[in-house]
Amino acid sequence: MQNGKRIVCVLPAYNAAKTLERTLGAVTPNTVDHYILVDDCSSDETVSEAKRLADQFPMEVIRHEKNKGYGGNQKTCYRAALGAGADIVVMLHPDYQYEPKLLATLTSMVASEVYDVVLGSRILGKSALSGGMPLYKYIANRFLTFFENVCIGQKLSEYHTGYRAFSRQVLEKIPLQHNSDNFVFDNEMLVQCHLAGFRLGEVSVPTKYFEEASSIKFTSSVVYGVGVLRCSIEGLLARMGLFRHPRFQWPLSKIAHSQ
Question: Higher-confidence residue: 214 or 106?
């Protein structure tokens, strides 16, 4: 626990058998009260490896019998975390791409009640390229982030990180069921959080690109980029009161700290 708050770490997994133990082992001991791994119909031994490690880590294992996509996986993760009594939920990819040692930093910023959402940014510390991020992905990241910041009126260094912590209130109030089941889910969720008035913070996190680390293919990256542009424009229109997609159809201005 941190500041009396129960910490649940969710692990959206797909073919993570080779990196799961290394990821969990790098988390600072006694930081996480409960782990939930959701396997999205992996073709490797992710589930059996997770069950083996459950003797060492307090972990619940959930398996999708059909692949639901990255966003669909997160929806299961967050429902399960709320059901497990989480006060703070932190998402950590089990492919060891993000530095697990900084998990406690993200959750402590939420536990302090200064922020409702905290993101682990690969851009703040300028380590993305040195960590192996392909140049085309870096350029796309910077362009899409700039475009999204302009549209929704934020100043985040990136929207595309998979390392993020949320207060329970965020997950209870944001209508995640209206979001995509693919990778653009991450962006839709952050636009929702911003428009709802939740406080977003960032911390610099180094990243590692290597063979076992998951990474979307070029074609999927293009589809993702188009989705980000669409989401950004939807956020702009919602801000202006001109059009609201169902994911933005709630009282935007006062949801964050209403009872």
Answer: 106
66 assigned to some structural domain: yes
What is the DSSP annotation of the chain?
-BTTB-EEEEEEESS-TTTHHHHHHHSPTTS-SEEEEEE-S-SSSHHHHHHHHTTTS-EEEEE-SS--HHHHHHHHHHHHHHHTT-SEEEE--TTS-B-GGGHHHHHHHHHTTS-SEEEEESTTTT-TTTTT--HHHHHHHHHHHHHHHHHHT---S-S--S-EEEEHHHHHHS-GGGS-SSTTHHHHHHHHHHHTT--EEEEE--B---TTS----HHHHHHHHHHHHHHHHHHHHHHHTS---GGG-S-TTTSTT--
Question: Which of 95-99, 112-116, 212-216 bottoms out in mean pLDDT, i.e. has the lowest?
Answer: 212-216
**Per the structure block, which two tokens stand in for 6?**
């129960």
For residues 61-76, average pLDDT: 97
pLDDT tens for residues 194-236?
999 999 999 999 988 766 555 567 788 889 999 999 999 999 9
pTM recorded for the entire structure: 0.92
Q: Is residue 259 part of a domain?
A: no
| Residue 255 domain flag | no
CATH number, position 129? 3.90.550.10
* Range of the structural domain that residue 144 is part of: 7-248
Pairing of strands 34-39, 59-63: parallel
User: Is 95 among the domain residues?
Assistant: yes
Number of separate domains in the chain: 1
